[in-house]
From TrEMBL:
This is cyclic pyranopterin monophosphate synthase. Pathway: Cofactor biosynthesis; molybdopterin biosynthesis. Residues 1-52 are annotated as: Disordered. It catalyses: (8S)-3',8-cyclo-7,8-dihydroguanosine 5'-triphosphate = cyclic pyranopterin phosphate + diphosphate. The lineage of its organism: Eukaryota, Fungi, Dikarya, Ascomycota, Pezizomycotina. It comes from Massarina eburnea CBS 473.64. Residues 56-200 form the Molybdopterin cofactor biosynthesis C (MoaC) domain. It holds the Pfam family MoaC. HAMAP family: MoaC_B (MF_01224_B). Its EC number is 4.6.1.17. The keyword Lyase applies. One of its GO terms (molecular function) is GTP 3',8'-cyclase activity.
Length: 226
């Protein structure tokens, strides 16, 4: 299985090589550990108060920036029938890809109603696309084909849109399942994840090695055309 790693534009600390007059490794380790204990506190979940109570995080002091997130996911079939019917537009409920694309857009707008601590934000763009993948195609691990969903969400605000992008992918994927369940009871949804994030204090993050199946790219504040 291909491992996935992310990269960020944020700066990384670098240490110089040891010189003959440098302290011993054990001394440096002790000093480093002691220093990190006071300057680098352990990461904490921001949605929890000191008493452990859940609350919505305040973003009042954050800057308004253009924020973009792309998420992806895959619906895998357990028999060859769905793939054949989708390609021939023979599914009784209608055009699977067109309906599921709209389902993904609607899902993104419903994100704060589904995720309790997600901020209601003014979304400025939602783009959803789906690609039919044949059996044994590329890196997709499937025997009977699949549908890959990619969703891109943008806003100009104080918090990111990763959850909206993930919710969009799940909405589209569930629509594919709903429309094909009459001919395939064993479908599965998997690999749902954020693959790109732009904007805000953390800058740009992208999953290393990820490439869009449908030609979807980063935001860059470009108005959401892909």
């Amino acid at each position: 299985m291909i491992s996935r790693r992310g990269f960020s534009t944020s700066a990384r600390w670098r240490t110089s090589s040891d010189s003959p007059t440098s302290p011993s490794i054990s001394e440096k380790t002790t000093k480093s550990t002691a220093g990190s204990a006071t300057t680098n506190p352990a990461p904490a979940l921001p949605h929890l108060t000191p008493t452990g109570t859940a609350h919505m995080v305040s973003v009042s002091n954050k800057a308004h920036t253009i924020r973009t997130a792309i998420a992806t996911g895959t619906v895998r079939f357990s028999n060859p029938t769905p793939l054949t019917l989708i390609r021939s537009n023979g599914v009784k409920k209608g055009d699977v890809l067109a309906v599921s694309r709209i389902a993904g857009i609607m899902a993104a707008k419903k994100c704060p109603d589904l995720i309790p601590l997600c901020h209601p934000i003014m979304i400025t763009h939602v783009g959803v696309d789906l690609a039919v993948i044949g059996a044994k195609n590329g890196t997709q691990e499937n025997d009977f084909g699949a549908v890959v969903v990619e969703a891109k969400v943008q806003c100009q605000g104080q918090t990111g849109v990763e959850m909206e992008a993930l919710t969009s992918v799940m909405g589209a994927a569930l629509s594919v399942v709903d429309m094909c369940k009459a001919v395939d009871k064993g479908m599965s949804i998997g690999d749902v994840r954020v693959v790109l994030k732009e904007g805000g204090r953390s800058g740009v993050w992208k999953e290393e090695g990820w490439g869009s199946v449908v030609g979807m790219g980063g935001g860059g504040g470009g108005g959401g055309v892909w």
